[in-house]
Automatic annotation (TrEMBL):
<dbReference type="InterPro" id="IPR019757">
    <property type="entry name" value="Pept_S26A_signal_pept_1_Lys-AS"/>
</dbReference>
<keyword id="KW-0645">Protease</keyword>
<dbReference type="InterPro" id="IPR036286">
    <property type="entry name" value="LexA/Signal_pep-like_sf"/>
</dbReference>
<feature type="region of interest" description="Disordered">
    <location>
        <begin position="1"/>
        <end position="26"/>
    </location>
</feature>
<dbReference type="GO" id="GO:0009003">
    <property type="term" value="F:signal peptidase activity"/>
</dbReference>
<dbReference type="GO" id="GO:0016020">
    <property type="term" value="C:membrane"/>
</dbReference>
<feature type="active site">
    <location>
        <position position="183"/>
    </location>
</feature>
<comment type="similarity">
    <text>Belongs to the peptidase S26 family.</text>
</comment>
<dbReference type="GO" id="GO:0006465">
    <property type="term" value="P:signal peptide processing"/>
</dbReference>
<dbReference type="InterPro" id="IPR019756">
    <property type="entry name" value="Pept_S26A_signal_pept_1_Ser-AS"/>
</dbReference>
<feature type="active site">
    <location>
        <position position="127"/>
    </location>
</feature>
<keyword id="KW-0378">Hydrolase</keyword>
<dbReference type="InterPro" id="IPR000223">
    <property type="entry name" value="Pept_S26A_signal_pept_1"/>
</dbReference>
<dbReference type="InterPro" id="IPR019533">
    <property type="entry name" value="Peptidase_S26"/>
</dbReference>
<dbReference type="GO" id="GO:0004252">
    <property type="term" value="F:serine-type endopeptidase activity"/>
</dbReference>
<protein>
    <recommendedName>
        <fullName>Signal peptidase I</fullName>
        <ecNumber>3.4.21.89</ecNumber>
    </recommendedName>
</protein>
<dbReference type="InterPro" id="IPR019758">
    <property type="entry name" value="Pept_S26A_signal_pept_1_CS"/>
</dbReference>
């Protein structure tokens, strides 16, 4: 305790002259506050008399200050300062201490501002280009979403402002919270985000359907970080989400086989966000984040090799149908194998005869004899309600315009496909189109496919069939093209008359037309040859001899005609003999035997085709000049064999490792879900078998206690046509499940796509460097 006797020596007298009123006012206020603080905190350490003197002086100084008696206040302030100096110097702050406290307060204020209001950031990469480029300095508003308590993830006053889709936010990277990331918010809690390449769609919480984000392609070119060099294979789009418009960029030269194309669905959980960079193909964002964990892999229990061994299908695709949120659970996996199954219902085939030597009418009649229903192109579209609707006016007009080129038409409807044969008016051409019912399920669809073929044909009639027919986008196709061979190797025509000139009537003509290995088949050639002389196998007289029974004799007032097809030797010929040379059918048959005598040599060597009827075999007749023929044969064909990925040929496998409810409880829950469930101990003890959920196929569920796993398998009826096939697959999975190394990956990569709300630091609002972009708002 201090006594008056212990007081220090008095300070030197103050210099002459009075201080300014402002100085006295400020000093008086500070001294009164200091005296009251010292008396309150240290009064017990000061002797009663000096303490009373200090209190009286402070009260007096306060009165003089309030009364604005500045001379008295100055004197009393000197007295109070002296009393504090003498009796309470131990409680007064030193200059160093005051400086430290002031600096501390300043630091605390700065930390408060940085943590709660604004904070500067520097952009480290180009993941947000073109909005932000590497090296940009920005200000982040940390107050707009509420105040985050420093060094925590707790947010106070979150109701003041809500994070919106389209906001550019800075946040702690969920995989490593020591790093700060900046991205754009795309999904809020409850949203499901679907990404398919450069298409982004959102199904907002509570909505039933996805809505694709609106995008407009911009004419501007992509630039590098410096803004001087153009980036190749890159496009800019203006994208809008909830009224917020900004610019994103996509690469256009990505190879989908390399996995660069982003595809998937993400459902955002409560308290989290999904974010993406504006530089969509070069941003490490929610779509790319993964963590390394021990995880199950269902394809380790049943592989493609297992399916090839145990089913009739050979080509399979593997997918994980659940969205990315579900795949984040490392103790669960669900896969779906879908077979690429041959589908005749998706198949297509086109045959074309260009200016056939037997005439378009003869080929058309041979193709349609006794098959299908005669119709017209107009009739195909008239009964189709879809084409007749107001919304399809342009389609209807286009079909009617193209259909004007189609003449005779015959349609045959089958269980698998529609066969349509038609002639083209503008050219002596005949086409036969076979269109699977999955594509041409109505006459209107047939008309559309015919119109597509005719339209392409009219653009360039020299095109091959493979250039005219396209497959449907619902299937994969393998092409089987029968090319147009050289005419001289397939067909020959020799004509004779007595003078070597064109005779006045067919009675003076002898003509042989012969085919070797025609691609359309000798049977069709035979029928077309008969049709060319107005006959058919029903009307003609069959001529049987040592060459076989596929010979046909036709006669009219001018000539006799003999048509022969040798299916084994792949040779066909039509021999016309005018009545001036062949007075009776005996004369014709005698000439036929001469021709047939040369057939064996032609079968062995196609170059000997002209030797079927050389001039020496017709004494008294001279060969006429050959008719002009196209270099390439008149016929070609394209067949498109289809394979489709159909869930009717699929296998699903679900795996739960160490389910939280226990193996027995999980198996019981699955049993309750499987229709017609029953026990099948032939696969495993207590295994459950039942019908597939669709009612077409077989399901199995069983537990493997040795590895603490529960497995469910569902095989469709197409892939497992009998329960025995499904049972063998289940047995294979059960056997492999006893070795955890088959299906447990200790270092698997699993998605961790979402940003916890508490990791968000604030919204990026302004650029402050470089100066060329100073204070620009961040869209």
């Amino acid at each position: 305790m201090t006594t008056p006797q212990q007081a220090q020596e008095p300070r030197p007298a103050k210099p002459e002259g009075r201080r300014s009123t402002g100085s006295v006012k400020a000093a008086a206020g500070m001294l009164v506050k200091e005296a009251n603080r010292i008396l309150k905190k240290y009064g017990g350490r000061i002797a009663p008399e000096p303490a009373r003197a200090i209190r009286d002086s402070a009260d007096a100084l306060a009165r003089y200050r309030e009364a604005k008696q500045w001379d008295r206040a100055e004197d009393e302030a000197e007295r109070l300062d002296e009393l504090l100096h003498q009796h309470a110097s131990f409680a007064r702050k030193s200059p160093l201490r005051e400086t430290i406290e002031n600096v501390g307060v300043a630091v605390l204020v700065a930390l408060g501002l940085r943590s709660c209001l604004y904070e500067p950031f520097k952009i480290p990469s180009g993941s947000m280009m073109p909005t932000l480029v590497a090296g940009d300095h920005i200000f982040v508003n940390k107050f707009i979403y509420g105040i985050q308590i420093p060094f925590t993830t707790t947010v106070v006053g979150e109701r003041w402002g809500h994070i919106a889709r389209g906001d550019v936010v800075v946040f702690r990277y969920p995989i490593d919270e020591s790093e700060d990331f900046i991205k754009r918010v795309i999904g809020l809690p409850g949203d499901t985000i679907r990404v398919d390449g450069n298409k982004v769609s959102i199904r907002r919480s509570g909505d039933a359907e996805f809505a694709e984000l609106k995008r407009n392609k911009l004419p501007e070119k992509c630039r590098d970080d410096s803004g001087t060099q153009q980036v190749p294979h890159c496009e800019l789009f203006e994208e809008t989400i909830d009224g917020h418009t900004y610019v994103v960029r996509y690469k256009t030269n990505l190879d989908p086989r390399a996995g660069a194309r982003r595809v998937g669905e993400w459902t955002v959980p409560d308290g989290h966000l999904l974010v993406m960079g504006d530089n969509r193909n070069e941003s490490h964002d929610s779509l790319a984040w993964t963590r390394q964990v021990e995880a199950v892999a269902a394809d380790g229990l049943l592989s493609v090799k297992d399916l090839r061994d145990l089913t009739d299908e050979k080509l399979f695709s593997l997918t994980r149908p659940d969205d990315v949120s579900a795949r984040g659970d490392a103790s669960f996996d669900h896969i779906l194998y879908i077979a690429d199954h041959a589908s005749d219902a998706h198949g297509l085939e086109l045959e074309i005869w260009r200016e056939p030597v037997l005439g378009g009418e003869a080929v058309y009649r041979a193709l349609t004899a006794g098959e299908g229903t005669e119709s017209t192109f107009s009739a195909l579209i008239e009964g189709d309600e879809r084409i007749g609707s107001k919304g399809n006016t342009k389609l209807r007009e286009r079909l009617q315009r193209i259909g004007g080129d189609v003449g005779a038409l015959t349609l045959k409807s089958g269980e698998v496909a529609q066969d349509v044969v038609f002639r083209l008016n503008a050219a002596d051409a005949v086409m036969r189109l076979r269109c699977g019912n999955a594509i041409c399920r109505t006459p209107g669809r047939v008309a559309e496919k015919v119109a597509e073929v005719v339209e392409r044909w009219n653009r360039d009639r020299s095109q091959d069939a493979r250039q005219i027919l396209d497959g449907d986008n619902t299937a994969r196709y393998s092409q089987h093209w029968t090319s147009r061979s050289a005419t001289a190797e397939t067909f020959i025509e020799r004509r004779y008359s007595k003078t070597g000139a064109e005779p006045a009537t067919p009675a003076g003509l002898v003509r042989l037309r012969a085919w070797r290995a025609p691609d359309e088949g000798v049977d069709l050639v035979r029928d077309a040859a008969l049709a060319s002389v107005g006959s058919s196998r029903t009307l003609a007289r069959q001529a049987v001899n040592e060459a076989g029974d596929d010979g046909w004799l036709v006669e009219d007032e001018h000539k006799f005609t003999y048509v022969r097809a040798d299916a084994k030797g792949q040779v066909a010929f039509s021999l016309e003999c005018g009545r001036q040379r062949c007075a009776s059918d005996r004369d014709l048959l005698a000439l036929v035997r001469t021709v047939e005598g040369h057939v064996p040599s032609v079968i062995k060597d196609r170059t000997r085709l002209p030797e079927l009827l050389p001039p020496g075999d017709i004494p008294g007749y001279k060969e006429m000049p050959p008719s002009p023929l196209a270099e390439r044969y008149e016929y070609d064909r394209i067949r498109l064999d289809a394979t489709v990925r159909d869930v009717a040929y699929s296998l699903g496998v679900w795996v739960w490792l160490r389910p939280t409810e226990g193996l027995a409880e999980k198996l019981a829950a699955l049993q309750a879900e499987i229709p017609n469930a029953r026990v099948d101990d032939s696969v495993a003890s207590g295994a459950i078998v039942g019908d597939a959920a669709s009612g077409h196929g077989t399901q199995y569920a069983f537990a493997v206690p040795a590895t603490e796993v529960v497995i469910r398998m569902q095989c469709s009826a197409g892939l497992c046509p009998t329960p025995e096939v499904a049972r063998e697959l289940a047995k294979r999975a059960y056997q492999k499940a006893h070795d955890a190394s088959n299906f447990v990956d200790p270092a698997a990569e699993r998605p961790q796509p979402y940003v916890p709300r508490g990791n968000v630091k604030g919204r990026a609002e302004r650029i402050w460097l470089p100066l060329s972009r100073f204070w620009l708002p961040i869209r």
